[in-house]
Task: inverse folding
């Protein structure tokens, strides 16, 4: 290890909160942490192998020689361990010393740099590519900081005195709540609900905060054990908020039984009632949630609770018939199974099951009968799985789980965050449609080139984004939302454009006064062929006007030979799947100029089946000059629900029916020389268990029937996809 790294003390900041000092010794990583309550500096000890931080300390230590030997010049730098870095932004400030010559710091570790004398220095940030972002900041070719952007709060490891030369400057907004307080952990309370069930609830208060009127509160309700992310949530307490962190019913230390989706609206309302009755509360409550927790906050908003004043909703799971259990009316397979099985082995989530490590996804989606998949995969029944199988149709049970059924009750300002590769983006779109339909004031949406774990990387599979695709102010904007609507700080976030979104392809951020962008024009692209659109070798075309009279396209759908694409919302190359004869492929002419599509998508299909029920899977892709077909948007629907979930109706074999199908949102520039591609098929086994085409309760596993499917495209039956075009 170089003498520079051995002799340099780094300050650790998480979401702008000083968390102590880090030193890379020869045989250990040393951490002098800060007492959480009193904010006093403690003695140095060995950093445990498992830490509550995002920064990969072990990776940094094992790579120190590579960092030290790298020549930080040019536009790109490849380290000896293969890590790739690209030149990114720069910062200029006056600092008291040079790297390795620590600046003057106080107990908080924050250098007094405002207006300080010293030498003006410019730093260079290097953006990590091809992996989870671990950015580097250099001064004159020497590393002064490591930066880990993420959703919970950017983490920065910086040589003492050099804070002003790093992305930490995003926390210096004078209208942003500052980390002025320690954290007083009041411990665990058992909060009673209206039915007597008690939920394990932790409360963290800002130590030393003086407020005769009480404190605004941020509430988190989780199914993943409230202890898992508590160190992240406590940092809101550092910034002057009371924080309430709760296990939902049936999870971790809470009483009751987990019935996913069913109780979250009322349980949230009851918890808010408890909060506002506490002496430390000022009556204003905000909620934060992501994924299932995002469903929780959306459901809570439909309670219409008058004390719920702000919601931040990230990558939220949608209602069961839209996004999860019965996506599009189908029976969801791996996305549902991995989560449900992980919740069914005990009161705490088994993340190895969730990640597909201890349960083989292929075996799980192929297991039959569907009703008994949990027994085959984890050796026991699953309460939620059994319950769902008892409700094969959309009834009052599902209606209670569908948050849009009560969308007229939503009054709270909601900040919605997601991305193009979020597997729950159908739920995000459902939420946004609800907010738009009821014209909820102060709604805002932020959509990036992000996965379900947003703001993580600048490359995904074969698709690359710009360096600023990973942002340094992610958690700052979340805090600004709470500051504006819980503390009433006039920071202007509510005056900014309603929508901010990243356009893949042209790789740039844009804003609009709405989502779908207000300036978008909806344009229809029509399906056409000479009757042989089967596979990418067929004659299917995507054209700007419907053909007057064209032969229909047909394919055979065999439920025992389903399409096996990844099932993920990712830029998957669909090229090999599009060779199948049971996928109809419609491709546009080669583009003569760039074409940007941004917003919510949909399509209309005119189709018939020889079965009494079936599924339709539609996909939009970008085809490059080499024939790669990169998936952008897709969705799946069950034919029997074509007239609404409340009105299931089996098909009349051979009868042409119209299907209006939602498709997942995108913002994408199709480049000159590329082509648009739209495909239709009837299965995607990693999204949904294949429809048996029988119309019989799918949980009874009837014997599958092979059917012939027909897609019509003519003046009478103008099948088309609707795309919002930005001119």
Result:
């Amino acid at each position: 290890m170089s003498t520079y790294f051995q002799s340099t003390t780094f300050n650790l900041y998480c979401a702008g909160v000083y968390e102590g000092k880090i030193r890379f010794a020869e045989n250990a990583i040393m951490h002098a942490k800060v007492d959480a309550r009193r904010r006093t500096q403690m003695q140095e000890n060995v950093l445990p192998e498992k830490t509550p931080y995002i920064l990969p300390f072990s990776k940094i230590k094992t790579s120190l020689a590579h960092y030290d030997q790298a020549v930080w010049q040019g536009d790109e730098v490849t380290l000896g361990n293969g890590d790739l870095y690209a030149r990114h932004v720069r910062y200029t400030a006056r600092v008291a010393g040079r790297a390795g010559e620590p600046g003057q710091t106080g107990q908080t570790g924050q250098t007094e740099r405002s207006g300080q004398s010293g030498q003006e220095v410019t730093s260079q940030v290097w953006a990590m590519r091809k992996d989870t972002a671990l950015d580097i900041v250099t001064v004159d070719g020497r590393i002064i900081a490591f930066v880990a952007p993420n959703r919970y709060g950017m983490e920065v490891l910086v040589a003492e005195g050099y804070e002003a030369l790093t992305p930490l400057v995003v926390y210096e907004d004078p209208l942003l709540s500052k980390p002025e307080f320690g954290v007083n952990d009041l411990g665990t309370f058992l909060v009673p609900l209206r039915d007597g069930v008690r939920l394990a609830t932790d409360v963290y208060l800002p130590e030393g905060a003086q407020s005769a009127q009480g404190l605004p509160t941020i509430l988190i309700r989780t199914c993943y054990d409230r202890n898992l992310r508590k160190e992240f949530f406590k940092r809101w307490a550092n910034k002057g908020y009371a924080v309430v962190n709760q296990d939902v019913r049936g999870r971790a230390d809470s009483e009751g039984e987990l019935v996913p989706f069913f109780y979250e609206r009322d349980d949230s309302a009851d918890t808010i009632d408890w909060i506002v009755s506490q002496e430390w509360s000022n009556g204003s409550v905000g909620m934060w949630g992501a994924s299932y927790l995002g469903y929780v906050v959306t459901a809570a908003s439909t309670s219409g609770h008058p004390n719920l004043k702000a919601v931040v909703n990230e990558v939220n799971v949608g209602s069961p018939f839209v996004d999860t259990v019965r996506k599009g009316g189908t029976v969801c397979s791996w996305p549902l199974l991995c989560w449900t099985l992980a919740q069914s082995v005990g009161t705490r989530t088994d993340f190895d099951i969730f990640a597909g490590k201890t349960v083989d996804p292929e075996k799980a989606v192929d297991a039959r009968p569907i009703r008994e998949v949990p027994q085959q995969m984890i050796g026991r029944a699953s309460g939620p799985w059994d319950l769902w199988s008892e409700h094969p149709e959309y009834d009052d049970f599902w209606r209670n789980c569908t948050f849009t059924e009560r969308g007229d009750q939503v009054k709270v300002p909601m900040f919605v965050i997601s991305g193009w590769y979020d597997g729950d983006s159908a739920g995000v779109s459902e939420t946004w449609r609800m907010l738009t339909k009821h014209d909820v004031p102060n709604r805002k949406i932020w959509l990036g080139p992000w996965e379900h774990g947003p703001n993580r990387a600048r490359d995904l599979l074969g698709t690359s984004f710009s360096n600023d695709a990973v942002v340094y102010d992610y958690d700052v904007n979340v805090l600004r939302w709470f500051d504006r609507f819980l503390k009433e700080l006039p920071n202007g976030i509510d005056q900014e454009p309603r929508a901010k979104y990243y356009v893949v392809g042209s790789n740039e951020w844009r804003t609009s006064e709405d989502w779908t962008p207000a300036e978008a024009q909806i344009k229809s692209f029509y399906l056409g062929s000479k009757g042989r659109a089967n596979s990418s070798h067929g004659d299917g075309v995507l054209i700007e006007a419907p053909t007057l009279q064209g032969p229909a396209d047909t394919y055979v759908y065999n439920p025992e030979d389903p399409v096996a694409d990844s099932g993920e919302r990712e830029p998957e190359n669909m090229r090999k799947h599009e060779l199948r004869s049971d996928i109809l492929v419609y491709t546009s002419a080669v583009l003569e100029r760039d074409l940007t599509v941004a917003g919510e998508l949909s399509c209309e299909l005119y189709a018939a089946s020889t079965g009494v029920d079936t599924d339709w899977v539609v996909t939009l892709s970008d085809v490059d000059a080499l024939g790669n077909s990169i998936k952008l948007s897709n969705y799946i629907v069950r034919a029997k629900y074509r007239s609404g979930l409340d009105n299931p109706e089996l098909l009349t074999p051979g009868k042409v029916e119209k299907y209006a199908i939602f498709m997942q949102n995108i913002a994408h520039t199709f480049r000159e020389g590329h082509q648009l591609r739209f495909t239709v098929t009837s299965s995607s086994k990693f999204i949904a268990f294949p429809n048996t085409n029988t119309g019989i309760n799918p949980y009874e596993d009837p014997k599958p029937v092979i059917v012939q499917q027909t897609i019509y495209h003519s003046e009478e039956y103008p099948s088309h996809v609707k795309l919002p075009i930005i001119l």
The longest strand covers residues 595-609. The radius of gyration is 27 Å. The chain has a mean pLDDT of 95. Residues 407 and 437 are 8 Å apart (CA to CA).
